[in-house]
Every structure is written in structure tokens, then in C-alpha cells.
Amino acid sequence: MTVDCRDPEWLAASWREVLDFKVIDRSEGKVEIGSWVPTVEDVRVRQMPPTLMFIRVPEGKTVKNRLHLDVSPIDAGTEDEVTRLLGLGAFKVDVGQGQDRNWVVMADPEGNEFDVLRTLAPQD
Hints:
It is a single chain. A hairpin with a 5-residue loop joins strand 7 (about 105) and strand 8. The chain has helices at about 10-20, 40-45, 80-85, and strands at about 1-5, 20-25, 30-35, 50-55, 70, 90, 105, 115. The chain is built from 3 helices and 8 strands. The N and C termini lie far apart (about 35 Å). The chain is about 25% helix and about 25% strand. It is of the alpha/beta class. It folds into 2 domains: about 1-60, Signal recognition particle alu RNA binding heterodimer, srp9/1 (2-Layer Sandwich), CATH 3.30.720; about 65-124, 2,3-Dihydroxybiphenyl 1,2-Dioxygenase, domain 1 (Roll), CATH 3.10.180.10.
């Protein structure tokens, strides 16, 4: 998945913290992060999780994303995860979702929307 942005290094660093990913490739104006280092053999043997590629573009974001990520916390409650993400530079946004939803719409530091869904952490 590719994300257009003004500062690939900075935005990739933000998402690395959110997703606990690592840098798997970088070049001028481009940073790729993922939970695994892709190899041809691994991809042929089994379905692998996607990577995120951040590419520098000259224009800023102007409209609501047509595609976005969903984050489901696994070690904490949803509100705790929202608090953590706010501390990493994300912010809450209103895209017309209404108040009575069981998810929280947020945006990364460059304004790309994503959702924080229900927690997958075991409930006491």
C-alpha cells in the first residue's frame, strides 16, 4: 500500500511507532515499512501481510481518503490506544461518522484518515 506524503521519513517513522513495523527499504523520497522483510520465496509459499510505502509528492492532501487503514489494539483498550496515538502526533477527525460509533476516526500527522476499532485485547 502506498501513501503519498510531503515527508516520507517523518510519516514512516510515525506509522512505524503506531504499527510496531520496521524499515525494510528506503531511497531518495521513499520509505517502505512492514512487519516482515519480503522475499520471493515467502510470497510464493503463503499470503503475506502488506507493507506500507511512503512516497514524496509535491501536493498536500485535499480530500477525504478513499482507502484507509483500520487499527485494532491488541494490548490495551480502544481509548488507551487513542491516547497513545494522540501522543504520537495523530489527531481525531470528523468525516461525518456521527457520534454513536464503536470506532474512532483519526488522522496521521499529515492528515491521512484511519480508524481505531474495538480492542482485541482479552477482557477481564
